[in-house]
Design goal:
The protein is of the alpha/beta class and 239 residues long. The chain has 11 helices and 8 strands. The strands form 2 sheets. A 6-stranded parallel β-sheet has the order 4-3-8-7-5-6, sandwiched between helices. Helix 1 crosses helix 11 and helix 2 packs across helix 7.
């Protein structure tokens, strides 16, 4: 798998799987927001750097690769990875586990998979909604995952919480593909809508999300994008 070094991060530029990995594989994504947050959060930065695959989930990262390295890479959203892994799970008649979101959202996910991918067995656990988990919380989550023995674990707690949780507990997680996919839980459950396909095709997925949730996302997609551009230009000038 080819990678492009952008600042501190090695970003994959040709990600594809024809079969499910046979060893523990941690897949994370990076966008302008997570890039900026990582500069202020050493544990988050370590989690992104130490994962096995780091995907460019943002048109800003695609731009940065072209601007800094003259490399043409393709945006790979968490939803794309989720869809690919579900197809492989169905093909191999395997098990997957969802960690995160509410009980209602998880039930909607399970029902949809039952219709679209009947060969997949689904397990899930809804963790308590709080900033920091207790030792007991973590133990219960890990027990739920390891008891189910999934081939793929999807974690949706939003960044940077989900990536840091995976990194901190990696040695206690099963020999699975472990994927941090955040908002994809809501997209797949249908509790939130992913932007229209034409917006995704033209690199405007961020705008579609901003239009639907302006109060919550304006800082992420406007404020942090400006900070990100500044950081990338600074990297370019330094070279």
């Amino acid at each position: 798998m080819d990678k492009v070094l952008l600042g501190s991060f090695c970003v994959s530029n040709d990600f594809y799987l024809s079969t499910l990995p046979t060893s523990k594989t941690i897949i994370n994504t990076i966008n302008a927001y997570s890039w900026c947050i990582a500069d202020k959060d050493p544990l988050f930065k370590m989690a992104l750097r130490r994962g096995d695959v780091l995907l460019p989930d943002g048109i800003s990262i695609v731009w940065a690769a072209k601007y800094l390295k003259k490399e043409k890479i393709k945006k790979v959203a968490g939803a794309d990875v989720h869809n690919l892994l579900l197809k492989l799970l169905e093909k191999e008649k395997e098990r997957c586990f969802y960690l995160g979101a509410s009980e209602e959202t998880l039930l909607l996910i399970k029902e949809r998979i039952k219709k679209e991918y009947p060969s997949i067995q689904v397990g899930y656990y809804s963790p308590p909604y709080k900033q920091n988990f207790s030792s007991k919380d973590n133990e219960e989550m890990l027990n739920a995952i390891n008891t189910f023995k999934p081939k793929v674990v999807f974690v949706g707690m939003t960044a940077p919480k989900q990536e840091k949780w995976i990194y901190t507990h990696a040695n206690k997680l099963p020999e699975s593909t472990i994927c941090a996919i955040g908002a994809v839980f809501d997209f797949y459950a249908g509790t939130k809508s992913r932007p229209l396909q034409w917006m995704i095709n033209y690199g405007l997925e961020w705008l579609g999300r901003l239009i639907t949730e302006p109060r919550r996302l304006w800082k992420r997609y406007i404020g942090y994008n400006l900070v990100f551009i500044y950081k990338i230009v600074k990297l370019k000038l330094a070279k």
